[in-house]
Amino acid sequence: MQKKTITKLLNLPNFEVREVLEHHEKSLHLYVDLIDPVRPVCSGCGGVHQAPVHSIGWIRVEDLPLFGKRVFLYLPKRKIRCPKDGKIRVEDFAVLRDRFTNRFAEQVYRLTSITTNTEAAWFLSLDDETVYRIDRGILEELAKKMLSPVPVLTQMSVDEVAWKKWHKYVTNVVDIDRRKVIWNHNGRGKGTLDTFFSDLGEEKASQIGAVACDGARGYLSSIKQHAKNALIVLDHFHVKSYLNDAVDTVRKEELHQARKDKDSALADLLHCRKKFILMQGTPSKRQRNVLEQLAELNDRVYRAMLLKEQFLEIYRAGAHKTARANLREWIGAAMASNIPAFVELGQKFFRKRHLILNFFRTRITAAISEGINNKIKRLKRMAYGYRDVAYFLLKIHQHCGLLNPRFST
Ligand SMILES: [Zn+2]
Fold first, then answer.
1. Where are the domains of the chain?
2. What gap in Å lies between CA 283 and CA 291, rounded to an integer?
3. What's the gap in Å between 45 CA and the centre of ligand 1?
4. How far out from the chain centre does Cα 32 lie?
5. Average pLDDT of the residues in 308-325
6. How far is the CA of 84 from the centre of ligand 1 (A)?
7. Nearest Cα to 172, choosing from 163, 190, 162, 159?
8. More confident residue, 67 or 283
9. Helical H runs in 80-164?
10. What pLDDT does residue 409 have?
C-alpha cells in the first residue's frame, strides 16, 4: 500500500517503487524498477536490439526533493552488446538525463537561466561541474531545436561584445520586435555578419526594413550587400557611448595633468569615470554641484560635457529636419572646440551623419540594445566560467534570447 502511494507520487512511467531503502532526516532513498521490462534502448545507437542482456548494473539518480528531503532513486540498468559497434552498452531511459531525472535537470536549467551556475549549485547542493554539465547539455539540445531556422524579422540590431581579453569578440543579432538575441557567432566584422545573412537566407534578408548598428565599416558593408531594403541607423545607444568615450578621454587627459600639477582638488573631482557617464539628463543636486566646481576649475572637461549634453538634446528635438540642422551645428561646434577627442568625433559624425539622421526616420529604440548590452555585461560579471566561446554564445541565448524558459513563447 505504502509503496503504491509512493509509486503514484513518483509518477515515472513504467517505474514502480520496490522498496524504501533508507529514510533520513534530509534524504529519501528508493529502490525502483521497471514494471514491464520491455527491451532496453541502446545508449550507443539509440536502437532496440534483440541481443540478450549481458549484465545488470545499478545506478543512483537524483530526483526532485520531496517534503524537504533530497530524493535518490536506485535502479537497475541492463547492459547489452550493440551489434553496430560490438561494444557493451548500458540501456538508456527516456526519463533520465545522466544521473538525474529529466524533471530535476529542468529545474537546474530554470535556475541557471536566472542566476549563476555557482549559485544554482549552492541552492541545489550540487557541485559546479555537475550544474555546468546539465546546463550545457540542455542548452545544446534546445539550440538544435530552437535556433534554426533563423526567424523572420523586420527590424534588427547588430553589435559586438568582448568576451575575453586580447580582443576576442562575439557578434549578436537582436530582433527588435521580439526584443531578443536571435543569432550569435564567434568573431565580428563583415565576415561574421555575412554568416548571419547566409543563415537567414536571401528572401528573409530582403524583408528587413531597418538595421541598427555602431556604424563600423565591416557591419555596414555586410548590411548593404545583403539587406538591400534596410535603412541603416547608427543608433542612439552607440552615439551615446561614443560621446561618453570622448568625455572620458578628455577627463583622463585632464586628470593626468592635474596630478602632474599636484592640483588635488581637481584630481579628486576628475577621478571617477562613472560619475561623468551618469551626469546626463537632469543631474542631481550633488552632480550639479560637481558640475559647478568643474566649470570653475577646469574649462575643458566642462566644455566636453556640455558638448555631450548638446548632442543628446538633438534626440529630444524630434523632427528629422530640425535634427539635421542641429546636427550640422553640433558638428561645427565640435570641430571648432579645440578638444582633440571632440574634433575627431565631429569628423566621425560628419562621415556618418546620414546614419545618425536615419534614426529620425525609423525611431529604432536604443533601449533594447542598451538593455541587452547590460544583460550581457552582467552575464560576464557573473562569471559562469566560460571555458569556451560556444558556451558563452549559448548562455547569451539563454539569458537574452530564444532559449530563456521565462520568455519562451
Ligand atoms: Zn546499439
1. 2-94, 155-234+367-396, 236-362
2. 9
3. 4
4. 40
5. 87
6. 6
7. 159
8. 67
9. 102-112, 117-124, 128-146
10. 45
- The Å distance, Cα 39 to ligand 1 centre, comes to 12
Query: For residues 248 and 232, is the Cβ–Cβ distance under 8 A?
Result: no
| Residue 366 burial (CB count, 10 A) | 20
pLDDT tens for 74-98 read 999 999 999 999 999 999 999 999 8
Residue 408 has pLDDT above 90, yes or no: no
CA of 51 to the centre of ligand 1 (A): 10
Tell me if 317 sits within 8 A of 328, measured CB to CB: no
For β-strands 231-234 and 210-213, DSSP reports them as parallel
Which residue, 242, 240, 342, is CA-closest to 281? 240
Distances in Å between the alpha carbon of 294 and those of 262, 269, 271, 288, 289? 17, 8, 12, 10, 9
Higher pLDDT: 298 or 233? It is 233
Question: Strand 180-186 to strand 210-213: parallel, antiparallel, or no bridges (unpaired)?
Answer: unpaired
How would you classify the pairing of strands 155-164 and 210-213?
A: parallel
C-alpha–C-alpha distance, residues 405 and 109, integer Å: 8
List, in sequence order, the alpha helices (H) in 125-271: 128-146, 190-200, 202-205, 217-226, 236-260, 264-270
In the chain, the largest separation of any two C-alpha atoms, in whole Å, equals 90
CA of 52 to the centre of ligand 1 (A): 13
What was the pLDDT predicted at 236?
A: 84
Cross-strand pairs, 163: none
Q: How far is the CA of 194 from the centre of ligand 1 (A)?
A: 40
For residue 354, report the distance from its CA to the centre of ligand 1, in Å. 61
Which of 349, 251, 263, 351 lies closest to 304 in space, CA to CA? 251
Q: What is the pLDDT, as a whole number, of residue 329?
A: 96
**Ligand 1 centroid – CA 109 distance (Å):** 29
Q: Dihedral of the CA atoms 218, 221, 226, 232 (nearest 10)?
A: 100
SS3 157: strand
DSSP reduced 3-state for 153: coil
CATH class of 155-234+367-396: alpha beta
Give the percent of the chain with pLDDT over 70: 95
Average pLDDT over residues 169-183: 94
Distance, CA 97 to ligand 1 centroid (Å)?
18
